[in-house]
């Protein structure tokens, strides 16, 4: 039941922040630096969401479907170049989506525990949160290599439930991709799907989250609160 919710877990890229401009630019640069076909912003928008390794593999494949014959040494080289380019970006093109800061601040004030669960490589996550000036709002931050498993595996959500000694019905997962919704369903908790993020060009409603919202601040409607409270 909604009145039982104590913890809200959020995806990062495509949910809290629009990081696609920096990710797309870094991927394109890494591919071009290796004399390979580059990646457009539109292509990258469909390829993100499963972690940096998969993003790079899709860039090398020039497709959502990863080519199984990719040279591992080349993939490792492009991944290293991607990390370098992304790190140098200083996340200058990344910003919070509308309503994120205000909504998170209110939810924290109301007593909810807030956490980030992302497939993004862990070492980049603190930088992005700091750049967005929302680091202080989260009690736990789980990056993509925090555990061996990542979304859509429920392991990160199960870790949070165990850490806080909560039942699945006491946690809500908020994300923009099917990986977030599938992880929530596998963990037994409710989920919110946001339509504005990165879901490989597929309607987030197809994954059947409990709620579908077009903007982040609509999350408050679940708890019947307003931004003036």
From TrEMBL:
Pathway note: Organic acid metabolism; glycolate biosynthesis; glycolate from 2-phosphoglycolate: step 1/1
Binding site for Mg(2+): 11, 13, 176
GO terms for MF: phosphoglycolate phosphatase activity
UniProt-listed Enzyme Commission number(s): 3.1.3.18
Active site: 11
Cofactor(s) for this UniProt protein: Mg(2+)
Highest taxon in the source lineage: Bacteria
Keywords: Carbohydrate metabolism, Hydrolase, Magnesium, Metal-binding
Pfam families (alphabetical): HAD_2
Catalytic activity of the protein: 2-phosphoglycolate + H2O = glycolate + phosphate
Purpose of the protein: Specifically catalyzes the dephosphorylation of 2-phosphoglycolate. Is involved in the dissimilation of the intracellular 2-phosphoglycolate formed during the DNA repair of 3'-phosphoglycolate ends, a major class of DNA lesions induced by oxidative stress.
Family: Belongs to the HAD-like hydrolase superfamily. CbbY/CbbZ/Gph/YieH family.
Protein name listed in UniProt: Phosphoglycolate phosphatase
Origin species: Vibrio stylophorae
High-level lineage: Bacteria, Pseudomonadati, Pseudomonadota, Gammaproteobacteria, Vibrionales
Gene that this polypeptide is encoded by: gph_1
């Amino acid at each position: 039941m909604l009145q039982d919710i104590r913890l809200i877990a959020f995806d990062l890229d495509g949910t809290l922040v629009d990081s696609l401009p920096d990710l797309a630019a870094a991927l394109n640069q890494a591919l071009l630096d290796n004399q390979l076909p580059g990646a457009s912003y539109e292509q990258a928008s469909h390829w993100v969401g499963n972690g940096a390794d998969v993003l790079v593999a899709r860039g090398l494949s020039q497709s959502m479907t990863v080519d199984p014959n990719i040279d591992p040494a080349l993939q490792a080289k492009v991944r290293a170049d991607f990390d370098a380019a992304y790190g140098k970006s200083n996340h200058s093109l990344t910003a919070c989506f509308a309503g994120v800061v205000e909504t998170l601040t209110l939810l924290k004030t109301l007593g909810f525990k807030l956490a980030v669960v992302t497939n993004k490589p862990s070492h980049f996550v603190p930088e992005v949160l700091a750049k967005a000036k929302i680091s202080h709002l989260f009690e736990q931050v789980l990056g993509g290599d925090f555990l061996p498993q990542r979304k859509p595996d429920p392991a990160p959500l199960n870790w949070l439930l165990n850490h806080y000694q909560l039942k699945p019905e006491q946690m809500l997962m908020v994300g923009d991709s099917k990986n977030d919704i599938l992880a929530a369903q596998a963990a037994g908790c409710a989920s919110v799907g946001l339509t504005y993020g990165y879901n490989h060009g597929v309607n987030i409603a197809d994954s059947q989250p409990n709620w579908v919202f077009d903007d982040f601040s609509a999350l408050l409607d679940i708890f019947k609160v307003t931004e003036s409270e």
